[in-house]
Amino acid sequence: MATKSKCFDKPGNVKGFTLMEVIVVIAILGALAALAIPRFTGVLENSQEQTDLANIRIVESAIELYQAEIGDLPATVDSYNELITELNHVGYIKNSELLPVSNGKRFSYDAATKTVSLTDDEK
């Protein structure tokens, strides 16, 4: 008497997901990712800009301290890099390479108004 192979038996109550259910879940996850990634990118760009603005306030505060304690900045300080070097030299800023974190941006220094601004990189 031949026995029937178990691989051909009809499954009874087998638990699991159908192919259609798996496809629907993957489609929903794809849609959520498509919505979340651009939003995350926007948040990242905004945080980079806010960091740059905070760094500008730090540099401008250092300029004010320098002027209050030492006097006017030397006339030779007419660029952002020279400003940071001078402020670092006298101890008002610890980091001598304070660069913007936003892509395609740079800090510029206006010696006439003694202000620092964030501008588009001209490269």
TrEMBL record:
Which Gene3D superfamilies does the UniProt entry name for this protein? Glycoprotein, Type 4 Pilin
* Transmembrane regions: 16-37
Q: Which InterPro entries match?
A: Bac_GSPG_pilin, N_methyl_site, Pilin-like
- Gene Ontology biological-process entries: protein secretion by the type II secretion system
Q: Write down the SUPFAM superfamilies for this protein, in alphabetical order.
A: Pili subunits
Tree of life domain: Bacteria
**Membrane disposition:** Single-pass membrane protein
Q: Which UniProt keywords apply?
A: Membrane, Methylation, Transmembrane, Transmembrane helix
Among Pfam families, the record links this protein to: N_methyl
One GO cellular component this record assigns the protein to is: membrane
Instruction: Give the chief site where it resides.
Output: membrane
* Intracellular or extracellular location(s): Membrane
Protein name per the record: Uncharacterized protein
Q: Which organism is it from?
A: Acetobacterium woodii (strain ATCC 29683 / DSM 1030 / JCM 2381 / KCTC 1655 / WB1)
Q: What is the lineage of its organism?
A: Bacteria, Bacillati, Bacillota, Clostridia, Eubacteriales
